[in-house]
Design goal:
By secondary structure, the chain is α+β, with helices and mostly antiparallel strands. The chain folds into three domains: about 90 residues, Acyl-CoA dehydrogenase/oxidase, N-terminal domain (Butyryl-Coa Dehydrogenase, subunit A, domain 1), CATH 1.10.540; about 100 residues, Beta Barrel (Butyryl-CoA Dehydrogenase, subunit A, domain 2), CATH 2.40.110.10; about 150 residues, Butyryl-CoA Dehydrogenase, subunit A, domain 3, CATH 1.20.140. Helices cover about 45% and strands about 15% of the residues.
Length: about 375
Amino acid sequence: MDFHLPEELQMLKDNLRRFVDSELIPIERKTNDGTEFFPGIQKELEEKARGLGLWMFDVPEEYGGLGLGHLSKAVMWEEMARTIAIPARNASIFGPRVSPILYTLNEEQKERWLYPVISGEKKSCFCQSEPDAGGDPGGMRTTAVRDGDHYIINGYKRWITGAGDADFAQIVTATDRNKGSRGGLTVFLAEMDTPGIKRIRQQDLMISDKPWEIAFEDVRVSIDQRVGDEGDGMRAAQSWLTEGRLRHGARGIGVIERCLELACSYAQQRSTFGEKLSQRQTVQNMIVDMFQDLHQLRLMVYDAAWRADNGEDVRKQSYMCKYFGDERSFKAADRCMQIHGGMGLAKDLPIEQFFRDQRSMVITEGPTEILKMALARQILRQYGD
């Protein structure tokens, strides 16, 4: 059993580390408002990212990308998460963000939806969460009712990141509410200017992201805007959800490591009552906890990513990566803030943003409690016989 990264992947990691340290961290407070890049910044950073040879690293080769595997992508996400130079949600400097669902479309649909996203002509948003159905998609109230060769969509979505400048939406609907998430959900694609789709308002949050609330009132979509067969909604979304959870875990690695770097550096500089903070056992304990969490999380994420690359079902592993990574990275930001004292609250440093962003991650894309409940069911099936 070899726990070392392959040499080529270790080189990728080292190159990214140098890029983040030299190009991004020095300007991280000057690149974005927490949600969007400031004018001209994204293009400038994209040119530098192209120079690394990593443009569209997460797009399959058949569509012109590098087609990196899950382990390689985890390393990318990990290193990029060490800085707040890139907004935590819905932003990239390595090419357009492409939802994995779009790769499952038929060829005619790909011409309309996928290829324009890859070329940068269009952006999409993913509409699942609702006021009464966030982590429980089976409670979906947005319905799609068949009407000949069309469907009529009615409902309301909340917490939709990226909807403001999206050209089209991926809409998760209930086509059979009695079946819930077990064959009752269907995904549709629709342009945002379709009659009946209304952006209601942006929600102000404790983090910089300002997600949208969107209403769907008698939105008429044709059958060729349906993703897969009726009732395939959860199956279509599963790849997006699983990869998203691995991404949460990988992001947690980067955040913990950066917080560890900041905490250790400050603890060795700052003196109180004639002694360095680094010499105080309480501070040492916090640093050791961060280091242990970093080691555990990295092993978990790399293992899950490696298994995914080898064709295994990693839903259980992705649940653990997500909730462990989000919770431990938030705790790392909290410990780092405590070690810095008042300076930890200042926007001169990235700590307060890590603190806010990681606290929000514990809730989004599957709260800890729901993921543990889903994991418990699988564990009981595995060991309960």
